[in-house]
Design a protein that fits this description.
Elements lengths: L2 E5 L2 E4 L4 E8 L7 E7 L6 E6 L6 E3 L7 E6 L4 E6 L8 E8 L8 E2 L3 E6 L1
Parallel strand pairs: 2-11
Antiparallel strand pairs: 1-3, 3-8, 4-5, 4-9, 5-6, 7-8, 9-10, 9-11
Amino acid sequence: QVQLVESGGGLVQAGGSLRLSCAASGLTFSSYSMGWFRQAPGKEREFVARITRNVRIIYYADSVKGRFTISRDNAKNTVYLQMNSLKPEDTAVYYCAARYDSSGAYDYWGQGTQVTVSS
C-alpha cells in the first residue's frame, strides 16, 4: 500500500533551520505532485509548499516564501522541505501529501512530524 513517512522534525530555536524529508513507497513517485502542509494547535491545516512531478512549478504560501524551499529526488522517492529562519509561528505538525491530478484533493497523506520553534 502507499506510505508517506515524514522525518526530520524537532525542537529548534527561532532563527534556526530544519530539513524535513518525506519518503514515499507503494506509488510511482515521479507521477505525483507533492505537497507540504502544516497544522498548528487549534488551527486548521494549511498549505505550505507544492512541487509538481517534473519540478517545473513550485508554489509557496506567502508566510514561508523566501524562508522555505521544497525539492524532490525522484530517484530516492523523497520530497524535502528545507526550513530556514524559523519563527515560533512555524510551530506545527508538518504533513506531506501526494496528488496524481494537477488539481483537486490530495490522494495520500503522511502521519506528520512535529516542528517546534522556541522563542
